[in-house]
TrEMBL record:
This is Cysteine desulfuration protein SufE. It comes from Crateriforma conspicua. Coiled coil: none annotated. InterPro entries: Fe-S_metab-assoc_dom. Residues 7-129 form the Fe-S metabolism associated domain. Belongs to the SufE family. Pfam families: SufE.
């Protein structure tokens, strides 16, 4: 289902429809327990509150399971998209992943405000940073 939504986002030229798809993507994401919604896990550089956590996961190539949430529906969809893009990637692949090109390919740069675009970049940077930390 998430694969289909991402494909639909990629195929969509209508910004309003694309935002609706992103919100739907966020609605389908695993929810983040409130215990993680603290300042230590908040992504800096986002206008909305975004919390991003990396937990140990032996079944993942990166050894991490990423979880995220936001207090804004659209931003929750954006952070879910970021996590989807690195799903099943190794830590090295995540470190080298070209989020910006993918965001451009999806047309997000054209449709997001500069503040939202900066926040999206901050989310991607935080995922990269967390992927390089040893799982505890």
């Amino acid at each position: 289902m998430i694969d289909e939504i991402v494909q639909d986002i990629e195929d969509c030229d209508d910004p309003r429809e694309q935002f609706e798809l992103l919100i739907e993507l966020g609605d389908q994401a695993e929810s983040l327990d409130d215990k993680w919604k603290i300042e230590n896990f908040r992504v800096q550089g986002c206008t909305s509150n975004v919390w991003l956590v990396a937990l140990p996961d032996d079944s993942s190539p990166s050894g991490l399971k990423f979880l995220a949430d936001s207090d804004a529906h659209l931003v929750r969809g954006l952070v879910t998209l970021v996590l989807y893009l690195v799903k099943d990637k190794t830590a090295a692949e995540i470190a080298e992943y070209d989020f910006e090109s993918k965001f451009d390919q999806l047309g997000l740069a054209r449709h997001l405000s500069s503040a939202r675009s900066n926040g999206l970049k901050s989310m991607a940077d935080r995922v990269r940073q967390l992927s390089q930390m040893p799982a505890e």
